[in-house]
Each structure stands twice: as structure tokens, then as C-alpha cells.
Design goal:
Two copies of one chain form a homodimer. Chain A is an alpha/beta fold. The first copy, chain A, is built from eleven helices and 20 strands. Chain A has a domain at 2-173: Carbamate kinase, CATH 3.40.1160.
Amino acid sequence: MLIVQKFGGSSVADAQRIFNVANRIIDTKNEDNQVVVVLSAQGDTTDDLIDKAKEINPKPAKREMDMLLATGEQQSVALMAMALNALGYNAISLNAFQVQLTTTSDYSNAKIKDIDTERIKRELARDNIVLVAGFQGVNIFNDVTTLGRGGSDTTAVAIAAALNADACEIYTDVDGVYTADPRIVKDASKLEEISYDEMLELASLGSKVLHNRSVELAKKYHIPLVVRSSFNKVSGTVVKEDSKMEKMLVSGVAADKDITRISLLNIEDTPGKAFEVFSILGRNDISVDIILQSIGRDGTKDISFTVAKSDADAACEILEKYKDKIGVGTISLDDNVAKLSIVGAGMATHAGVASLMFEALYDARINISMISTSEIKISVLINKDDVELGMRAIHQKFNLAALNSL
Amino acid sequence: MLIVQKFGGSSVADAQRIFNVANRIIDTKNEDNQVVVVLSAQGDTTDDLIDKAKEINPKPAKREMDMLLATGEQQSVALMAMALNALGYNAISLNAFQVQLTTTSDYSNAKIKDIDTERIKRELARDNIVLVAGFQGVNIFNDVTTLGRGGSDTTAVAIAAALNADACEIYTDVDGVYTADPRIVKDASKLEEISYDEMLELASLGSKVLHNRSVELAKKYHIPLVVRSSFNKVSGTVVKEDSKMEKMLVSGVAADKDITRISLLNIEDTPGKAFEVFSILGRNDISVDIILQSIGRDGTKDISFTVAKSDADAACEILEKYKDKIGVGTISLDDNVAKLSIVGAGMATHAGVASLMFEALYDARINISMISTSEIKISVLINKDDVELGMRAIHQKFNLAALNSL
């Protein structure tokens, strides 16, 4: 079999952990597999490099930032090759230039366009364990790009797709995908499997197990992912097409605290205002999540919506500029909010899921200020201080602790 | 003018020094020049990476070592681009893949074969200050190579040659080339200029100002080098063709303590024995320096020679293997030795230089155990403890302190 494995930065943080991972790779190799391994930068390397850059230039050019950051992953793969050699195994490290992992030119957030698998296949044929630097790519100008935080997951899935691999295993510092963050909900249970769609909702909702784009890519190319811990041998969670007869009502609860609510008050109550606001934001690459529009009163109305906290300042700046043109009275900002969501593929065919969620929150005396739903998820905006309480309340209401024993 | 500048690792060790160098680069740029800058890895980065590798594998594969070490220079150029941007100047960093700096495949000691200047020229035309990662290359397999310690000097000269630059300035932590190591000989004087050949002898004799291959390359392509300090504005030393009417008798005194003397005792006194010994060593890439062969006595003779200390163990291992075949009695090793040398282009046409050197050592009661001479240098092997004393004695005998005022 041909297996692609990805290990995160904390799994290769020091020499001892590198050998720990090397031994896991060797176990897989010894089961008569060909192995391609994607690695992230060691431990805090990326953050340290960012600090170094910011000390020199608070707003470094993204092209130069990518040139700087890509060195972290190159170091990891070289060190891992040395460790595998020390344990008596053939291994070779490759960077983005060497596997011709070409991307778009969106520095710091590039999308993978193509991978030339020729070099990887040649090295596998030579009985090498092939180590590929994650997170990085090369654009049409032959410049270094990076795929954004967590991009190594995407590298692994893309390589698995390009090689038509039999499996893609994502090793991380948790045992798999849980019904809720186990640090918050003590009796959260691990899911044996989850569908791509559910995982996508969970990933985008702030459950930081898998990089969102890696799941999209896995779905597109039908690559089953296994998420498991690099620190123990516990079987992980399989992310794949939804194959179960009985879809789970609710697979998990997720929270996202990194959001800001922006409110536009006293907008002229004439048609097309909301369109105007969101098209301006869209043109500036700012994604809007939950939206609430009040009913018009005295010829004006209010529009509230949430954006990622990192986009909040840019969004306000742009809106201030167009404020008079659009006819907005006041722009106000609130980042004492959080989004709480439940995800489940079975929701679409079961009534009453939303009301059960609202009941759980009501019982816990938590106020809901905005609501948003999709086929397989329900999100509510609540006070940031209520997140943990709400998460536990919902988890219990849906009996998610007993999920695996159902 | 098109100027290539190279700054060493200590010159870019931290953010403050990076800005110091950035300002020097800007000074050059503002004098209406196009500037290409070659940088080494920051401060102790290379040593730290070597330590990291050795912790994992005491004998790491050289290919992987090069993959690891090349990241240091890539970080330096990215950070310098950010600094120049912060100061309001256009700059772009480039690694070996991007300038297609192709080399041989001798990992850790690769030789430059070619540089594709197209990218550099395009960036210069866009008014960019171009920052090229030193020390690294790419071989025919598209793998990363490095040029060996001090290789960034060679990168700078090679780029200057490829671009047909008007000047190549090597910035370091000393003011230039001195008649002797100023830490040992207090009144050593700085040379205003020195010929390529003299510099080559001084470089290979252990005066660590310039990487030897960079001088060879500069000589081959007639690139005048300027060696000067990155910490002050003192004019440095020009290394160029010998143009002076009166060549200097002695330009400098250099010492090399990193050598070992190997003695082969009681070798059969039959023809071809020395040839046999040195051809075995040559086949194993071990360079031999000073050689002394005793006159045969009782049907046997002795051969002594010096090798770099780093080659001593390997040399002994090989010789032990062939000991009986060659007919060597005993192999002995002595690393309490050092080589003291004087260099000067005028030596060839002046008699009495050697005797003056020997007189200086005799006056200082220093015993000479081996002697080697070339057109422009005289080297003697002495006791390691006598090096400083001998250096001062010779420096004084040739009145080198007054050199610049002559």
C-alpha cells in the first residue's frame, strides 16, 4: 500500500519526539508499505520566525514572509531524514521546489494547483521513505508561497490525491475528532467516523483538528482521512463519505470565540442596502457569517453581522469610508461574542433539533442574540462568557457522551 | 555601477545589525548604483543547526545536512528584504533555486558551475535591491548543496563574475587584510592592497579573512575584491592582480594550528614507497602539505608529512590498513605542531628572505622541524606553543609594522 502520513509541529518539536515519529513511520514502512511523510515546522519555529520578522518590519511583505517561514518545514524534513537514517532506514527530504508543488500567487494563503509526482515516485522506487516539507509551494514566478496556517494538512491530502494513495493519516496532538473540545466538556466522546461535510462544518466552526481546505480537497478527491494522535496508538477518527444508514443527529458541538459582531444602525430603510454593504465587504475579501436584519421602523433599520476577529478592523475601515454613501447612521463593534454550533448530517431529516438546542441554552439561562442554520448545522451567537456553559449544556442535552455506545 | 556586496553572519546576527547593514546597502544604492547583496546565515545559526543535526545523527548524510543548513541563508535574505522595505526601499530575496546557482554534487563542499543571471537582472531592472542567499546551490538532481564554510564569499564573487559587476565588496568583522593576526601581533598593519596569489597563500595558510575558493574565482575572472569591515567606514584591503612596480618582499605572516604531523618510521628503503603512500592518501581525498623524507639508514627510512587536523584520523586509518603491504614499521601522530608562513610576491626575485626568517626564529630560540617553500611563500613547522612568539619575531624582523609607511 502507499500511505501518506502528516505529523504536526508539536509531534516533531525536539529530538526525542522526532525519533518517536520516526519509529511510527518505520512501523508503517515495515508493514510492507511505501510511505510519504509530510511534516510541519518544529514546535514554535513558525511563531519564532514571525516574531523575528515583526521585530524588523511590523508589516512585512507577504512574499518575504513566505520565503522566511518555508525554512521551518525544510528543517523538519531534513532532520527527520537524519533520524530515519540513524535507525537504519533510507529516507530523503524534499522541499516544494523539488516536488514542484505549484500554487497560486496568494502569498501566505496560496492554493495548490499541481504536484509533479515524478520525483516522489522515483524516490519511493528506490525504497526511500519520502519526507515532503508541508505548508509551502512555488508559484509561477518560481517564488516561495505558503498555504496558510495548518497548510501542511492540505499538502498531505494533495499529495495523497496526486499519488492516488491508499490512505492519508493526519497525526496530531489529539486522539481524533471529539463531540466537543475535551478540555471544556469532560465527557466528550471520540467519533469513530464523521462525514466530510460534518468535518467541514466543524473545522470552519473553530474545532481546530483539521485544516478546512484539506477536508475540502479530501472530499473532492475521495481521499479518506484518518485523524489520530502521534503520541499514542489509539485508533483515530475516519473522515470520509457519509456511508452510514442512520446518520447521526448531532456529531459534535463547536465554539468559535475569534469573531466580532459589527452592527450598522439606523440605515435608510430602502431596498438594496444590505446588498450594497455585503458586496463592498466581498470585494475586499471579507467573509461575513451570521447576518441579522431588523424590521424597519421610523424609516430606518439595523443590520448586524459577524466577521472573523482578524477582519474586523479592515471591515470597519472600509464601512466608515462608505458610511455616508450607503446612508449608515452608526457603526458599532462588539467582540464580546462567540458562536456556538451543533453539526450533524442527520439534522436535515429530523425535526426538533433546533428547539432541543435552544431549550438547552434556555435551561442554562443563556441568551441567544443571532441564529443561523444550514442543512447540517445550527449556529447561535451568544455572550463570550457563556461559551463553556453552553457547550456543556448542549452536549448533555443531546447525550453526546454516550454517542459511541449507542 | 553594478556592485556586489557580501556580509558575513556576524554582520547580520540580530535585528539591530541587520538595520546597520541595510543602511550601508542603501548608502551604496543611493550613490546611483545597482546593488546585489549576498548574505550568510545569522550569527550562530549554522552552528546551532549542526548541533541539532548531530543530536539526532552523529554522522548525518551530507545531502540532508545541506538541505538543513541552506535554510539559514534563506532566512537572512528574507529578513534583510523586510528591513530594506521598512526603510522605504524595494528589495527582493532569492535562494539558489531562484537564481539557478548550479553546482557539482559534492554535498557540503560543492563547486559552482553556473549562475542564470536572468532573474537577478530582471529584479535589478525593476529597481530592486537583490538579496541572494549565500553558501548554497542546486545540483543536477535539483537537490540543495552547500559550498563549504565561508562559501558565501564564493557566491558573491561568482555572482559578480556572472553579472560582470564593477566591484565586489566583502564585508566582514575585520578592517581588512593585516600583515599578521592583530590579536597576536599588536602592531600588525593593514595592507592597502595585496595580489590574488599572496591572498591565496595567506587564505590557505590559516588567515581566515577570505574563503580560498572565492580568491581563486576572483583571480580567474579578474574581479577585484575589497575586504572591509561592516562595523565601520575604514577603507579596506583591495585584492587584485599584482600591479605594483616594486613587489612587497613580505606581505604577511600567517599561522595554522589545525594541522597534524604523521610520521611513518622504518619504511623499507626501496624506490616508490613515498609514491605509494601519497597515492593512497590522494585516492582518499586527503591533502598532504609539508613532506620530509629522511635519508636511508640500515635499509630503512622515515617519511613525515602534515595533513589538516580534521583529516588526521582518516589518514591513519587508511595507512594502518596498508601498513604491511607498503612495509611501514610504525605510524606515529603528533598534533602539537603548527605551521608558520611568510608570504610575499617579491620573494621570488629577492635572495635572503628565507635566511632572514630562520634568523628571526633562531634568535627567538624556536626549533624548526620541517620546511616548505614556493615562489611566494616559506612555511616552517614548529612546536605549537611557539607560534605567537615566532609570529611576533618574524613580524619585527621584516619590519612589517612600518609596511604602510614605507
